[in-house]
Design goal:
The chain is mainly alpha-helical and about 625 residues long. Helix content is about 60%, strand content about 5%. It contains 18 helices and eight strands. A hairpin with a 2-residue loop joins strand 6 (about 480-485) and strand 7 (about 490-495). Helix 3 crosses helix 17 (about 520-580), helix 4 (about 85-110) runs antiparallel to helix 8 (about 195-215) and helix 10 (about 255-275) packs antiparallel against helix 18. The two termini are about 40 Å apart.
Amino acid sequence: MATALETGFAHSPAFKTRRFLNWFPMGLTYAMLYMGRYNLTVAKTSLNKTQLMTNEDFGLIFGAGTIVYALSFILNGPLVDRLGGRFGILMSAFGAAAANAGLALYLRYVMNSETPPGSVALVFSIIYSLNMYFQSFGAVSIVKVNAHWFHLRERGGFSGIFGTMISSGIFFAFTVNGWLLDLAEKQWGEKMQWVVFAAPATLLAFFGLVEVFLLKDRPSLAGHADFHDGTSSTDTDEKPIPAMVIYKRLFTNPIIMTVAFIELCTGVLRNGVMQWFPVYASQIWVLPKSHFLRDGSWGDWKLVVIPFVVAAISFGLSRFTRGNRRGWLIVLGGLAFLAPFLQGGWGGLLMVAGVIGGNVAGWVSDLFFQSRRGPTAAGLYGFLVLCVAGMIFTLATPESTVGSVPPPSKGKVAMTPEESVQPGDKIVAIAGKDVKSWADVSSATACWPGNCKKSGWNAATCTCDSKLPQSAAPEKSTIPAKIERGGATIDIELKDPMGEMRAGDKRTLPASPVLPMTPFALGILVFLVTLCVIGSHGMLSGTATMDFGGRKAAGTAVGMIDGFVYLGTAIQSLSIGYISSTNWAYWPPFLLPFAVVGFMLCLRIWNARAGQPAH
C-alpha cells in the first residue's frame, strides 16, 4: 500500500476516480442529513391546520435541537479527529436515521390518537435534540476526510461542492419532503405528516450502508499515496493531538475565532430566512402549496426533461472541446441543469441559490484572491446587508380582500356563493369580530366555537381540548360574516370548513388574500440572502477550517465553527418563534444587525491566507 508523502497535487486519473467514489456518496449522505434535519419545518407547515405545533413550539423544538448541535462539537470534534471522519459519518447517518424513525413513529401515534397527548412539544424536543446530536457528526466528518484528499489550492472549488451538497439536501428537505407528503395524503388521506420523518430515516440508513464499503479516511487507506496539503501545518504523522492542545490552538488563533463569530451571524441569517420564509408564505400570505414559493410542481414534464437533456448534451460536448468554448458549454449545462429546480418550490430555489453561491464564491476566492476567503465573504455579506434591509419594505402584509379560493376536494360538491367567500370579496367582519387584515380574519375564524369530538372547546387557545369535558355542539354549523361584494355590503352564513373538530385541530378559512405587492419581491430578496449565506458558509465552514485548522485539528475546527453556526441558529429560532407569534414586521429588523456585524468581521480577515502564520 502506498504511503509516500507527495508534495504536489497533480493527481492521476485513478486517484481522481477513487476520490470521487469517496466524496460523492459522502455528499449524498450529507444531503440526506439535511433532509432529516429541516423536515421539521415541512411538518410544522403542514400542522398549521392543528394546534399540535404552534410557532413558539416550533421555535422551542428547533432551538433545543440547535443548542444540542452547537454544544456537541466540544465532544464530537476531538472524537472525529481521533477516530476519523469515516467513524463520524457512519455515526451521523445511522444515529440520525434512528432518531427520525422515532419521530415518525411518535407523530404517527399522535395523529391517529382520538385525544392527542399534551406533551407533543416536549417529546419532539427530546427526540429532535437526539437527532441533532448525531447530525453534528456530519460536517465535522466531511471536512476531516476531505482535508486528506484535497490540496489547499483545490479547496475553493471544494467549497462549491460543499455548497452544492448543502443545497441538494435543502431541496430534498423542503421540496421532496413536501411532495412525498402530498403523495401520501392523496393515497391514504390526511394525518400522514409522519412520512416526512420516515423517508429520510430510510434513505440515511441506505447511504450509511453504502459508506461502510466505500468511504476511506485517507488516500493511503484506498491504495494511493498521501500528499502534503499546501498549508503551514506540520501535522504529517498519524499520532493524535490531545483535545486541549487542539482547543488552545483554535481559541488562540484570531482567524479561526473571527470566522467563528462570522458563522454565528451566518447561523442567524441562514435559518432566519430559510426556515421562516415558508412559514410566512403559508401563514400570512396563505399561498397555495403548488406556488413556486412553496412546494412548486414538476407536473409539466416537458419543462423538466428538456432542460436536463440540454444539460447532458452541453456537458457531453464540453469533454471534446477546449478553451473558452468548453467553459461556455459547462456554464450552459449548469444553468440548464438548474432550470427545473426553479419550479421546485422553496427547496428548489434554495438549491439553485446554494449551488450558484457556493461555486462562484469558491471559484472567485481561488482565481482572484489567491485562495484568500475574506474578500469573497466580505463581498457576499455586503450584498446580504442590502437584501435584508430590502426585506423590511417587501413583507406585503395582506388586508382582508379575498384573492382566491381552492377548488373543492375530490368527491365533494362546491359550495355556493351564499355559503362561501368568493374572489374579490372584502371581509368586513367575521365570527362576530370586525377585521382589517388577513391575520384578523384568520384569528377570528379560528376562535369561533367548534363542534368538538370527545373534547371541550377552549376559548383561550381557540381549539378543542381533551382535558376539558365534552362541550355541546353549536346550534348552527355556520360562521356569520359581513362582506363587501359587487359594491354592496351583505351578511352571509359561511359553511364551517371543519364540521367536526378533534383535540388540537385549528380552523382556517379556505381562501387566500389579495397581496398588496407581488410575493416575488420578497421571494427574490430571500433567494439572494440564501445565495450569499450558503456561499459564505460553504467557503468559511467547509474550506477555511481545513486551511487554518490543519489536518489533525480539521474535525475540531469545523465542529467549533459549526457550533457557532448553530448557536446563531438557536438565537434566531427562539427569537423569531416569539416574534412571529406577535408581529412579523419585526422579522427583518431582527436579522439586519447580524448582517452588518458579519460584514464588519469579514473585513478583519481580508488578508488572511493559509500557508502563512496567523498573527
